[in-house]
C-alpha cells in the first residue's frame, strides 16, 4: 500500500514576473516531493490580465468555486501597465483573500545569507509582519460621485470589526510567544479617531494576559522610522491591512530587496485553502528579461509546504535557497549576476543533493 501524500495545488502565475518565478517554485516543490514522500497535482489557472483582455474579467465567474476544493493556492503576481491596479487586485487577489477568509497575511522578513542591507549598518533584522487581510482600509464601502466633473468626490470607508481585530491580534500574540516574545501593534489612534482607538483597545485586551510577552503600541509614522533605524528591536508586528502592506515592503527593502519577501494568506481554521504569494507585484519594468529574483516565490512555496504539514520539505527548500545565496549566487536586485533560471538551477542542485 502506498503511503504517498498527494496535494492538489492551484497555481496562478498571473502577470509579468509572476510567469517567471512560478516555474522554479513548481520544480523545487516537485523535486522535494520525490525526496519527502509527497506528490502534487498542479491545477494551472491561466487567470490574470491576459485572461482579462479576452474575457473582460480576471478569473472565471465561478473561479472561487473552482479553487475551493484545493489544498492550497500558489500565486505569482497580478498587475498590468494597461489595466488600472484596482481592477487587477479586486478582480483576483482580493476576492480570493476575502472569500476564503484568509484573514492573516503572514510576512516574514530577515536578512538572508550573502545579502548586505542597503543600510549597511543594519545586520540584525528578523521580523514577522502579521497583516490583517480581509477588512480595514481595503474596503469596498464608498463610492465616486460626479465622475469627471469638477465637483467629483470619492468616499472610501475603512471597516474594522472587533472580531477582525481580535483574531489577528491573537494570532500575532501566539506567534510572538513562539519567537522572541515581543509584539508591536501599529496604530494611528492620535489622528484616526474611530477605527484606530478600537484597534488599540481590542489589541490591548487580547494581549493583556499574554504571559511573558513584551507588548507595545507605536504610531505608524514613528514605527516606519524605527524599523529602518533599529530593525533589530522588533520581532512580531501586528498591523491593519494597509499599514501592514506598507510596513512589510519597507522592512523587505531594508533586508535587501522586495524580491525576497514572501507572504502567506492564511485561513487558520483550514475551512478554505490558503494562498501563498511573494510580496512583490508583477514588476513590468523587468518582466520578460528573465532576471527576476525568485526568492520571494520560493520562500512563499516553503511557507505553503509548512502549512501543508511538510515541514521537512519546507526547511529543506529554505536551506537550499540560503546555501545558494551564501555561495554568492544572487540576482541583480541584490547586486549579483545570476538570472532567474541560474538561481533556480543552483537551488535545485542543492535539493537533489
Ligand atoms: N504577489 C502578488 C501581487 O502581485 N501583489 C501586488 C500587490 O499590489 N498587492 C497588494 C496587496 O498585497 O494588497
TrEMBL record:
Entry keyword set: Manganese, Metal-binding, NAD, Oxidoreductase
This protein's record includes keyword Metal-binding: yes
GO MF, one annotated term: magnesium ion binding
InterPro entries reported in the protein's UniProt record: ICDH/IPMDH (IPR050501), IsoCit/isopropylmalate_DH_CS (IPR019818), IsoPropMal-DH-like_dom (IPR024084), TTC_DH (IPR011829)
Cofactor list: Mn(2+); Mg(2+)
Keyword NAD listed: yes
Domain of life: Bacteria
Reactions catalysed according to its record: (R)-malate + NAD(+) = pyruvate + CO2 + NADH
EC number in record: 1.1.1.83
Domain annotation Isopropylmalate dehydrogenase-like: ranges: 8-347
PANTHER family: D-MALATE DEHYDROGENASE [DECARBOXYLATING]
Family designation: Belongs to the isocitrate and isopropylmalate dehydrogenases family.
Name of the protein described by the UniProt record: D-malate dehydrogenase (decarboxylating)
Gene this chain is encoded by: ycsA
